[in-house]
Amino acid sequence: MDTLDELIRRTEPSALLTLDGTIRSLNASMAAMLGRPAEQCVGHDFLRMLPETQRASGENLLTHGATTKTVAMRVLQFPGPGSASVVSLVEARPVEDPAGGPRLVWVHLVDARNDLGGLLVPFKLAAAAADLGLWMYSPEEHQLEWLGGAPALAALFPEASVSFSSMVRRVHPDDREALGRIVRSTAAPSPTMWPARSVGSSWAMAALSRSLGCSATRRSSRRADRKCWPR
C-alpha cells in the first residue's frame, strides 16, 4: 500500500478524509473537482462540498469505505471547475496512518481509461435498477454497443451493437440534430440530459456522455420529466 503522501501525489483526484468526512489533505486535481482552491477545502466537510443531491450517496460511500474490507464504489457528480459538473466513479477505502494517528479514508476517482470494466459496473447496476438502458459509444467506429438494462429499451435495440446512423433513424426527426451535437461535442465528459422521442412518438429521456456512453428510458406518457442518468 502506498504511503499517505504517495496517495495524494497520484495524478487522479484524491483526498484523505477523517472518519467524519473532514478533508485532511487533497491534491490539486480533487480541489478542481470540488470547484475550490485546495486551501478552502482542507478542514471542511467533504460531503458539504458535493451537490445536495449527491450527499446521501457520498455519505453511503464513506460509511462503506471506512468500515468494510471490500472495495466501496459509487458514481458521484462533482461541481467541477467553473460551471462544468463532472460525473465519475469514486472509490473509498480505509488507510492507516503510519505515524499512529487515527484511521483515515482515502477517496479517489477511478481512471476510466485504465479500468473501464470497473467503471461500468455501477452504471450497469444503476441502469437495471432504474429501468434504464446503457450503451457505450465508440466515436472511431461510429458504433453503439448495448450493455444491458430495461427490457423495453432492449426491444428497441435488439442487436448487440448498432451503427450511430441506425440509432439516429430510431430517434424522432425533431431530436436527431440534438443527438448529433452531443456526440460531436468535445466538451468535458459529463452526461448531458436529452429529451428524445422515438420514431413512434413515444417519449424518452436520454443521457449521453462522449466517454462513458449513453442511457435512456422509454416513456409511455407525453412528458419526459424524469432524470435518467444512473447515479
UniProtKB/TrEMBL annotation:
Gene3D superfamilies per record: PAS domain
InterPro entries, per the entry: PAS (IPR000014), PAS-like_dom_sf (IPR035965), PAS_4 (IPR013656)
Pfam family, one: PAS_4
Highest taxon, organism lineage: Bacteria
SUPFAM superfamilies according to UniProt: PYP-like sensor domain (PAS domain) (SSF55785)
Ranges of residues in domain PAS fold-4: 15-111
CDD domains named among the record's database cross-references: PAS (cd00130)
Protein known as: PAS domain-containing protein
Organism: Streptomyces sp. R41
